[in-house]
Design a protein that fits this description.
The chain is an all-alpha fold. The protein is about 55% helix and about 0% strand.
Length: about 70
């Protein structure tokens, strides 16, 4: 897989302050650099998962959740 790098605009979409809000108490003892690293990893992971989904969908191999049957 290609080396994934966070796009430049990703920092504007999810600033450090918003990341801290989403992380809640887990971010209390983290430095801004650590929060930024978590954001970068989450962003790269999201893109990797999206690539896998799109690739599988193109091959017709997407798992579909069955809808619950109503009585």
């Amino acid at each position: 897989m290609d080396d994934m790098v966070e796009p430049q605009g990703a920092r504007d979409v999810l600033p450090i302050l918003r990341c801290r809000q989403l992380l809640g108490d887990e971010a209390t003892d983290l430095t801004d650099a650590e929060v930024e690293e978590l954001r970068r990893h989450a962003h790269v992971l999201a893109h990797a998962l999206l690539e896998v989904f799109l690739h599988r969908r193109a091959q017709g191999r997407v798992n579909r959740c069955a809808r619950p049957q109503t009585p």
